[in-house]
Structure prediction request, 212 residues.
Amino acid sequence: MSLRVCVLGSGSKGNSTLVATEKTRVLVDAGLNRRETYARLAAVGERTDGFDAILVSHEHVDHISGLRLLGIDWKATIYITHLTHEVISWDPRLCAFELFSPGQKFTIGDIEVTPFSIPHDATDPVAFTLESQGLKVGVVTDLGYVHEVVKQRVKDCQCLIFESNRALPLARETAGDGPPWTPLKPGDSGIPHRGFRWLGPSAGACPLERNE
Prediction:
């Protein structure tokens, strides 16, 4: 059993993360343009089609700049909060939406997604945990400070993707005690026995496997 995770982009130039199982492929945020998204997927050996869903954390351009064209290409369902959906101007060719509220769990294929509110200067910003096959990944971006809700949601993740201006200190505060904190490099794999690993902007494809 495995869950593939790849940070395609992180930071003000575009945020985008692939989370995939053998059955389901999800893009968390579409902050890179279509050409760059396809190039980075290909660079890590991933297909550039066949996505089941795009999750949107909030409306800032570094999280949605590629959303329109990728949504049209893939005909993927866009998962977004009610309030964030209202503040974006939509291309009429995009019609597959699933609206949710923070804290409301939903399932995409064999991945269970839990969105939760985070502190950020957007309309209704959320982060996500994604669970499948006994593995849990947290994708938390643009975090200004570590709220108690964030700590509770990510405390039992095996992999935490954490983006902030002060990413490493904040991530340490969020996770608490655990294994040493070092950025994963392209090709790194596996899960520490407890705690988290931090994936910085330079991180590459990270296949995760559960130890039986």
